[in-house]
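Changelog-adjacent note: as of this version, every example in the card shows the full chain rather than a window. The one below runs 337 residues end to end.
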Amino acid sequence: MADVSVVILNYNGEKLLQKFLPSVVKYSAEATVWVADNGSTDASVSLLEREFPSVRVVTLDRNYGFCRGYNEALRRIKADVYVLLNSDVMVTQDWLVPILRLLESRDDIDAVQPKILSYKEPEKFEYAGAGGGLLDPLGYPFCRGRILNRIEYDHGQYDDEREVFWSSGACMAIRASTYWTHGGLDEDFFAHMEEIDLCWKIQRAGKKVFYTGTSVVYHLGAGTLNYASPRKTFLNFRNNMTVLLKHLDGGEMWWKIPLRIGLDWLAAFSFLLSGKPAHCVAVFKAHAAVTSGLSAILRRRRALRTAYPRYSRKNIYRGLMLLKYFFGRRNDYLKPQ
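Full-length structure tokens:
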């Protein structure tokens, strides 16, 4: 049996740990539970020592952000499988069983995500991951069960097991060897969309990312960075463009990048018209950050394409996410039954 470590990255999350860690300890008998403390200044570490003696702790000297924080912590943890789990996730009985079954029975699967439902509205999917991540031809990420801010009710429509494009970083099991083969999470991202970059690398290497609807967790969401934060908007727009610059083939770059720039600017002006000027500014700051860091991004692109020259379009969604959102037939799963 594989040596499995569930690893929760924590930064000043004392209250979240107190609320959500008990379910992880109770229902993760197949794994060693770790908390990697990312330089917290609250009482997180003393809480762990006092109330969760079975949980192992990695203490980092400062807040390294999500990506580097995980990389620093996982270097100190020996395991065959890492399960990256947000501190605001409640797990359920036997949640690890179907995830580990897929990894142990299929050598071609390198990462697995469970069904992620909303902790606040458990009858609905949760924004970050839902029923498995997809990517459209223009590089817009979305999920089965969630397109932009439109979120479906869970009626068992995604209780399947299938290949997806990306697994949510809120709850992702990944082979440790795969994680380090691809250099861990790209630390230049800091946070957000780093899991899409990693899952794209997995597919470039000829392996698969899977979703299983037979494992269920409940995610609070925005536990460390609110969905309405301009900082989150900045990271999402900057990192989405960075992912595309790293991974798109040369023949796609010349038209998809200019088109995406134009669409991002439309999104910025939409923010402005809807009374969210800080989010409008965040989009332009994101593009400025990509421009200033372009040489480094292109170096990573060259290294990636040297190792894995092409990627399969098999798991790219056949259709445009924006058209589906604005003009597609309304999904029956958007209303309760």
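Structural remarks: The first strand starts at residue 4 and ends at 10.
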